[in-house]
Amino acid sequence: MTVRQLTEHKELLAAQRLYESIWRSSTPPVTAELMRALLKSGNYVAGAFEGEDLVGACAGFCAPPSQSTLHSHIAGVAPGMRGRNIGHALKLDQREWALARGIKAITWTFDPLVRRNAHFNLAKLGATATEYLPDLYGQMCDDINSGGASDRLLVTWDLIAAQPQVVSTTGVVALGISDDGLPVRGTCAGDTVLVAVPSDVETLRATNPAAATEWRHAVREVLGGLLAAGGRVTGFDRSGWYVVERNKS
Q: For FRET with 187, which of 116, 141, 218, 224 sits at 20 to 30 Å CA-CA?
């Protein structure tokens, strides 16, 4: 597998079609024309190739010069290709591209209910959760996000200092999981608190939309509330827990 910048129009069209196959939306999440404009203005648009086949793509744009950051807007891996470290290869390429241009941090957002993404971003890459953003994009018309609010967690990846994180799940449970898979509110009265997310929210959205909505509001209230009060997410355990250190002041 190789990762490189996309420059040819046919490659940008392939990236658009890849995104369409992932999100299965009525309109492309990102068009070839927009990616061409991003490239022309000096931004990041790259693809991962297995032979001649495009199996992953990522696009981002630079923040104002004073911030010296790159915002990674969209990244996706072809259906059936998960678990082959394609997303990780794209992120490492993005890191090299940014550092070569004097950029020291990359930001992006992800759905805090998606367990595998939380583990990848916070544990494997060592990015830092900086803000909980309720319904950031409004209603989204695609097969992955439709039918609910588009809450996102904003993360910042320090390209110099970030390291993979291993966390302890010792702490009080602020949000747990019942035997039937629903959120159960606990207590935030501790220095270290744990916030659970469902094992597979994407399947839950399709099979039990009411339960998925219940999880959305519970995580927004508990995790979003902790961050708004000055709490700091120190990591995410593979078993499905955000670990949050509360502001002790």
A: 116
Q: How many structural domains compose the chain?
A: 2
User: Which residue shows structure tokens 């060592």?
Assistant: 126
Domain encompassing residue 103: 2-158
Clarify whether residues 146 and 187 are in a common domain: no
- Contact present, 58 and 46 (Cβ < 8 Å): yes
Q: What are phi and psi of 60, to 5 degrees?
A: -150, 170
Query: Does any domain span residue 166?
Result: no
Ordered per-residue pLDDT tens for the chain, 249 residues: 899 999 999 999 999 999 999 998 878 899 999 999 999 999 999 999 999 999 999 999 998 876 789 999 999 999 889 889 999 999 999 999 999 999 999 999 999 999 999 999 999 999 999 999 999 999 887 777 777 899 999 999 999 999 998 888 889 999 999 999 999 999 999 999 999 999 999 999 989 999 999 999 999 999 999 999 999 999 999 999 999 999 765
Per-residue DSSP letters for 21-71?
Answer: HHH--SS-SS-HHHHHHHHHTT-EEEEEEETTEEEEEEEEEEPPTTT-EEE
Same domain, 126 and 16: yes
